[in-house]
Amino acid sequence: MHAWPASEVPALPGQGRDLRIHDTATGGLVTLDPGPVARIYVCGITPYDATHIGHAATYNAFDLVQRVWLDTKRQVHYVQNVTDVDDPLLERAQRDDLDWADLAERETALFREDMTALRMLPPKQYIGAVEAIPGIVPLVERLRDAGAAYELEGDIYFSVESDPHFGQVSHLDAAAMRLLSAERGGDPDRPGKKNPLDPMLWMAAREGEPSWDGGSLGRGRPGWHIECVAIALDHLGMGFDVQGGGSDLVFPHHEMGASHAQALTGEFPMAKAYVHAGMVALHGEKMSKSKGNLVFVSQLRREGVDPAAVRLALLAHHYRADWEWTDQVLRDALVRLDRWRAAVSRPDGPPAEALVDEIREALANDLDAPAALAAVDRWVELQRTAGGTDEGAPGVVSRAVDALLGVAL
After folding, report:
1. Whole-prediction pTM value?
2. Backbone phi, then psi, for 187, in 5-degree steps?
3. Helix and strand counts by DSSP (H, E) for the chain
4. What CATH architecture does domain 298-405 belong to?
5. For domain 20-295, which CATH number applies: 3.30.70.330, 3.40.50.620, 3.40.1280.10, 3.40.50.1820?
6. Model confidence over 179-220: pLDDT tens digits?
7. What's the pLDDT band for 175 if we cut at 50, 70, 90?
8. Which residues is 257 bridged to in the sheet?
C-alpha cells in the first residue's frame, strides 16, 4: 500500500529544540532524545468513512511531532497502518451492499487526498492489515507456543497475565478496563476466556466473512491489536520513540499492543512515550462514526474551504484538549489565514528571528500550537501597526509557518 506525496518542508536557519511531550504511561512530560533517526508509529484509520475532523486533529498532532524532529536536523521514520479488514468495515459494507475491499480502497484513497490537501507529512511505510497478515501469523504462533495465548473454539486469545507490565500504559482498574473493552471491540463476557480482558489475536473464519490462511492457526483473520504490533516491530523494532493515536486508543488498543510486543520480545517498554490526541465534538458529543455526527474534510474541500484554514482551525486547539468543532472555529481560522497571507505579501516587516524562536519553543513545549499561533498573530499585528524595515522578514515568517506548522501562506 502506498502513502500520499510529501510536501516540501522549507529549511530554516538555526536548529529546533528537543521535544518535551506528555506521556500517557508516566502521566507527565518527558523529553525525547531520539538518535539520528526518530521512530514513530501512529495508528491509522479503519477505512469505512474517512476523513472527519477528529481524524484530522489526531494526524495533525503527529505531523507536528515530525516537524519538530525535522527541525532538529533528525531524520524521521514514520509508520502508519490501515485497518483494512475489521468488523466495523464489514458491517458498513453489508449495510450499504458494497464489497468490503472496494469500500476500504475507496475510503483509503479519499484519506490520502485529504492528508495531501492538509499538508500532512506521509509515513515512510503505510501498511494495510491485509498485507501484514503473513507477518502477523508467526507472531500469534509464537505467543501460543510460549503459553501467552490459548485457543477458544478455534479463536486464539492473548493472555494479559502473560505480561507483567500489563496496565502500565492506561493505569486503569479492572472494572474500567472491562467497561472500555466492551465498548471498544472486545468481548469480556464471552464464556471460556481465562480473563475477561483477554483480547483476540486470531479470529477463526466465519461464514460469509473474508479469511486467510493462518498456517497452524487455521483460516481466519487477525485481531486488531496484533496487527499494529506486527507492523511496528517489523519496521521500527522495540523501544521506538512515540506510539501515537487518539485518546480513545489508550485502552484497549495501546495497552494490549504494548503487552503483545512485550510478551513477544521480553523487552520493556514497547515505546518510549505513548502520546494521545484529544477528541473533537460536534453538537455536544464526541465526533464519531457510530454517532454519525461527523464533519468531513472532503466535504469542506468540496465547499471551497481552503485546507490551510482547516489546518489553522486544528492548530488553534492544544492537541491533548477535547474541543468542539463549530462554524465559528472555522470562521476564526479563515480570518487568521487572510491576515497572515496579507502580512507575508507585504514588502517588509519587523525582524522575524525572535518569532521563529517563539514558534520553536512553543512546539517543543508539548506541541503548544495555540501559543505558536499567538506568536505569529503578534508579529502580524506589529507589522500592521508599526510597520518594519526588514525586507526578508515576511519570507522568514512564511517559511517558518510552512516548515513548523504545515500551513502554506
Report:
1. 0.96
2. -140, 65
3. 13, 14
4. Up-down Bundle (1.20)
5. 3.40.50.620
6. 999 999 999 999 999 999 999 999 999 999 999 999 999 999
7. very high
8. none
